[in-house]
Automatic annotation (TrEMBL):
This is Glycerol-3-phosphate regulon repressor. InterPro entries: Carb_Metab_HTH_regulators, DeoR-like_C, DeoR_HTH, NagB/RpiA_transferase-like, WH-like_DNA-bd_sf, WH_DNA-bd_sf. Residues 14-69 form the HTH deoR-type domain. The keyword Transcription applies. PANTHER family: GLYCEROL-3-PHOSPHATE REGULON REPRESSOR (PTHR30363:SF4), HTH-TYPE TRANSCRIPTIONAL REGULATOR SRLR-RELATED (PTHR30363). It holds the Pfam family DeoRC. Coiled coil: none annotated. GO terms for molecular function: DNA-binding transcription factor activity. SUPFAM superfamilies: NagB/RpiA/CoA transferase-like (SSF100950), Winged helix' DNA-binding domain (SSF46785).
Length: 264
């Protein structure tokens, strides 16, 4: 006789339960210990132990009541620049639509923000302040841009300048709009980064800007990274891809002022 799904889950070995939990994390991003315990017909204590083990293996971050999948964005800049180019271009086109002439734009480093630099229209009459050499190179030869490149320490694999010099320069800026780079975003946990100095610089960018915009590929949503940058409520414009599930979109709309879907 074929076993029911409930019987199959009830008979799982510990390593099999852990694999099921990891699959749920990869599918949903956030998991709750109570819900997993009910589904796997085991105790919350057992589920929490599995989540602790998965966190120690680098798969997730423990949060209140459960866990979040670790963002896949912890890769060298050169790798990220070559990934999902068409998807980032669609996000960039949508993000560029909110820019207005004569604004001071603070453009954070990151592959999607490099795409935003390329998507900004010629003769836009903008001042763009950026810590990204790649973004700077996309703008320098085009009409209508006054470009200020923030200096500082460039680490191996980094997409932009970091450190005390960059932080001091950002603190002297008063921008109308910031396109903030984000390694991870969750409605409850907010925006996060993988590097402590990067997170500190991003927090300074948030403080220096009148409005905050983030364009984010889907795999970074409902994920975590070690260093907190800002709450999700600090985001004035969030640009996401068309494949974001409706329930996930609703949870983002509950905390972000304007969630805009980039369509082809």
């Amino acid at each position: 006789m074929q076993r029911t799904r409930e019987e199959a889950l009830n008979g799982l070995l510990p390593e099999q339960r852990e694999q099921v939990i990891l699959e749920r994390l990869r599918t949903h991003g956030r998991v709750l210990a109570a819900a997993l315990a009910a589904e796997l017909q085991t105790s919350e204590h057992t589920v929490r132990r599995h989540l602790r083990d998965l966190a120690e293996q680098g798969h997730c971050k423990r949060v209140y009541g459960g866990a979040l999948l670790i963002s896949p964005a912890d890769k060298p800049a050169a790798v990220r620049m070559s990934e999902a180019v068409d998807r980032k271009a669609r996000l960039a086109s949508a993000a560029a639509s909110i820019v207005r002439p004569k604004q001071i734009i603070l453009l954070d480093a990151g592959s999607t923000n490099v795409a935003i630099a390329a998507a900004l229209p010629d003769n836009a009459d903008l001042t763009v302040v950026t810590n990204s050499p790649e973004a700077c190179s996309r703008l320098l030869t085009r009409p209508g841009f006054d470009v200020i490149l923030v200096g500082g320490r460039m680490t191996r694999g980094a997409a932009g300048a970091l450190g005390a010099t960059a932080l001091l320069q950002i603190q002297q800026v008063r921008a109308d709009l910031c396109f903030l780079g984000a390694c991870a975003l969750d409605p409850d946990e907010g925006v996060a980064a993988f590097d402590a100095e990067d997170a500190e610089l991003k927090r300074a960018m948030v403080k220096a800007s009148g409005q905050i915009a983030i364009a984010l590929t889907s795999e970074k949503l409902m994920t975590a990274a070690p260093f907190s940058v800002a709450p999700a409520a600090a985001i004035d414009y969030l640009f996401v891809e068309a494949d974001v599930p409706p329930a996930r979109l609703t949870s983002l709309e509950a905390v972000c002022d304007n969630v805009m879907v980039a369509r082809s």
